[in-house]
Design a protein that fits this description.
Layout lengths: L9 E4 L4 E4 L1 H9 L3 H12 L7 E4 L2 E5 L7 E8 L2 E8 L7 H18 L2 E3 L2 E7 L2 E7 L4 E2 L6 H20 L2 E2 L6 E4 L4 E4 L3 E2 L2
Parallel strand pairs: 7-13
Antiparallel strand pairs: 1-2, 2-8, 3-4, 4-5, 5-6, 6-9, 8-9, 10-12, 11-14, 12-13
Helix pairs in contact: 3-4
């Protein structure tokens, strides 16, 4: 697991869409010019399918992951030997989620690290009229709700409760079990979905 400070994302805003990306993501998209189009086509084809459904367009494979609901869906994307975790949010549900989520994670970084929780490094974000999505590396880890070791869950709860008290003073919320991954090899917790209270 990467414990370096979060890399900043450059935000570019147009009339109809907004992008946020690290230099690494920008380089990867340039090297794989059809990636975003293939990803969007694959997502559309499995949008209403069951969890575990897969679609391949060109050289991009997309799988629908657990915990997908009507307003939020999660996907595993594979391209050029790399794997990415994607959170998609319906624009009907919320606008401005990409930049807000990125800013919330950066604002929370010092607090959650102090309590032994690693922040997720977002690599790419997109906001448009049909939806918004955030992209990070795929770690292949279990969500805390899937962890059966009670001692691990109790420790996560202790850390989250301590961090949440400080985060609430900054208007940051959603540090919950459903938004935490667990890395058993390195005994680390990784937060992947924080936001500002509206």
């Amino acid at each position: 697991m990467d414990i370096r400070p979060l890399k900043p994302l450059k935000v570019v805003e147009g009339r109809r869409k907004k992008l946020a990306y690290t230099q690494r993501a920008k380089d990867f998209v340039r090297q794989n010019p059809r990636l975003i189009k293939e990803f969007l086509n694959a997502v559309r084809s499995i949008w209403d399918s069951k969890v575990g459904a897969k679609a391949k367009y060109g050289t991009t494979t997309v799988e629908k992951l657990k915990f997908s609901r009507d307003i939020k869906k999660f996907f595993l994307v594979e391209r050029a030997g790399k794997k990415f975790f994607v959170k998609w949010v319906s624009t009907d549900f919320v606008r401005g989620v990409v930049v807000s989520s990125i800013e919330a994670m950066r604002e929370a970084e010092g607090i959650i690290r102090k309590h032994g929780i690693q922040p997720m490094q977002y690599e790419f974000g997109f906001e448009g009229k049909n939806g918004s999505f955030l992209v990070s590396r795929f770690y292949g880890l279990k969500n805390l709700n899937e962890v059966s070791d009670n001692a691990v869950v109790r420790e996560a709860d202790r850390r989250m409760n301590a961090a949440s008290r400080e985060l609430s003073e900054k208007g940051i919320f959603d540090l919950e079990r459903r938004n935490l991954f667990y890395d058993p090899r390195n005994k680390k917790f990784i937060a992947f979905d924080l936001g500002f209270e509206s």
